[in-house]
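Quick question: what would this complex look like in 3D?
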Amino acid sequence: MLENLSSRLQGIFSGLRSKGRLTEDDINSAMREIRMALLEADVNFKVVKAFVARTKERCLTSEVLDSLTPAQNVTKIVLDELIELLGRTDSKLVMSGRIPNVIMLVGLQGSGKTTAASKLAYRLKQEGHSPLLVACDVYRPAAADQLQTLGGEIGVRVFREDGQDPVKIAQDSIQDAIDNLRDVVIIDTAGRLHVDEEMMAEAAAIKEATKPDQILMVVDAMTGQDVVSVVEAFSDRIDFDGVIMSKMDGDARGGGALSVREVTGKPIKFISSGEKPDSLEEFHPDRMAKRILGMGDMISLIENAVRVQQEEDEAQAAEELARGNLTLNDFITMNRQIRKMGGVSKLISALPGGDKMLGSGQVDENALDDMEVIINSMTAEERVKPEVLNASRRQRIAKGAGVTVTDVNNLMKRYNETKKMVKKMTAGLSQQPKRNKKGKKGKKTRRRGMGIAGLEGLSMSDLKNISNMMGDK
Amino acid sequence: MDMFSKVSSGLAKSRDKFKEGMNALLDRGPQLDEGFWEDLEETLILSDIGPEAAFGIVEDLRDQATRKALPDSYAVLDMLGCRIEAEFAPGGEDILNGAAAVVLFVGINGTGKTTTVGKLAKAATDSGRKVILGSGDTFRAAAIEQLQVWAERAGVEMVTRERGSDPASVCFETIERAEDIDADLVLIDTAGRLHTSEDLMRELQKVVNVVRKRSNIAVYTVLVVDATTGQNGLQQAREFDRALDLDALIVTKMDGSAKGGIAISISHDLGLPIIKMGVGEGIDDLRDFDAHEYVAALIGDYNTNEETVEDFIEQDAAAPPKMTWAEFVEMDDAGKIAGKKHFWEKW
């Protein structure tokens, strides 16, 4: 996400970096790029104007212009302002002590409320809650069926009363939650237009009747300039607490996130990207801003890696890796893990400068699959002890996999490079404290420790290696 | 009620702020001062119409206003209206109102494909055509049930299979069934997908290929675009067009405060006519496209002069294609953007 924005800004600042001292003209041309990039990202025009004015003013102070490293200072200011715009602190889902907690979802038609509701339910279930999904969309044909199906897939109870008034359904659902020992009620409402007074009144009535602890508005990441009037209207009538940005897996820049925060002051709580129930992620403004500036999103990446690994429970393999005993079998496992984490492109785009590489087509999504095919043509012994591969064995493998010997040689080269690199990376990772049982506190501390450790072991040249490994064939 | 008043009535219900925004250009009176040009530029940017239009058109109009000595801002707005009308690609009348045809509806998630198919089925049946529906969205939960409700409302037959089955085979069966019952309009709903998902785009390509191969009557693919979509809409449309070779557009959800400016860019860039526009939730609110009404919703009411529109269409043949902001900056870096003096002065 936001690839172009980061590559444009990177472009500006590598230009600025080559100069010793900045002039006002330099700042102006940088601001021009920022304006264009933000408009390309669908940030609202008025928000762009205000953002650029603020940033420019700060950049033009003498401390910045006269400092030895003006370009870095400008970068820092833009980053600061972006973080400011996105909301300074992380905003988690706040649960009250009341049982059941009520979460209500609102939004325009087609923004992805029903999908978000089921993802949220899945997430809460993973965290140990027992949610209840409530189908309050009585207008769109089969909307309740959709929620019922999605609820069935993730094993969450769905409450529906077809043909009833949505306000009554919402009220009844709370009793149902109590009767069935559910501690969180997630109310999926009908999509409505911000200019439709009747429907907005209905949403307000549901709010009045159920007194939700949290109201989340689902906003499509692809929304254009109009996002401002939409969120303003919802904010006025329903006064929601936070936003879920949906469809973030497309290549829309999601600049609406910036506008929403600036205009309503409401935080983005989650980003939703993908069709799978587990693709609802917490939103971190600082990471997002860094990502926009091409500084990479290593922490998210590492967290993601940790989760995948936990699921697989491959502590054994990790230990092996740490000792540098990387076999070709691990290579296949890694390949599969990468696929689980969203594929090569997602991985690369989270690395500093990764967006640029993706944009210029240097990354081949299928490179890893080709590797797997070659490895599959090897014997069990060859996979564990790749040293035994001589010329004739390589020829046999190439024939079996339908590739040339050069391809096999390339794979072995990459394997050896990776082996070196993994040794470095896992030197930090292997020091992680022992896994805790569920519980927010434990998770948080472990993740933080991991993030730093993981970053320490990784140098820029390693990142280049990763890119080489996945890129050129 | 024409569309402009429909949109206006929708807006009348809302807070005055929107109304002000929409008629800012008309309300500021006849004088042609710098403030007018700035408001105009802002209105166009806020409509999602894109940089080329927002700056190119405004710069162009400034020239014309001086050369042709346009008396006041109303004359400029009339000319602007005609200029934007000239951007729409013509044609597309035969797709829903011509000879027997198979029409596939494609687009990203949540643009309103299923609802559009349902409304069209009802309208076409009412006008005496024999319609059959194919439920090619076998992915989304309850999409089939949703279309089934519409099929019942329209009193038409619908072909489907259980969720998760191959959409191409559903289409194949739909066409066979259409031939059996002599239907002359086959409407096929497909699953929403992001243009960035290669696998799903390939699947859709297969679906369309199967339909094109199997059908003995004309096959059209129509992209359904949500009026609230921003700059990413152009990229989406280009990807869908590259994969499927689109024939037309339908713009939905024009009933909010969104102006649907991006659809103008898409229509111009890819030469795709807009054949319907959705201005409300009612079944009659999916209307035939009308350029004047569309543009009036964007810039406020104005007078269309057919000749002026024709002139612009001729000039436009040599005009640069539509572009995204990023492309605009690149073109500018290459020195290929002419006449944007006023723009860069300010920016």
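Answer marked as accepted. Chain B has two domains: 3-88+301-346, 93-288.
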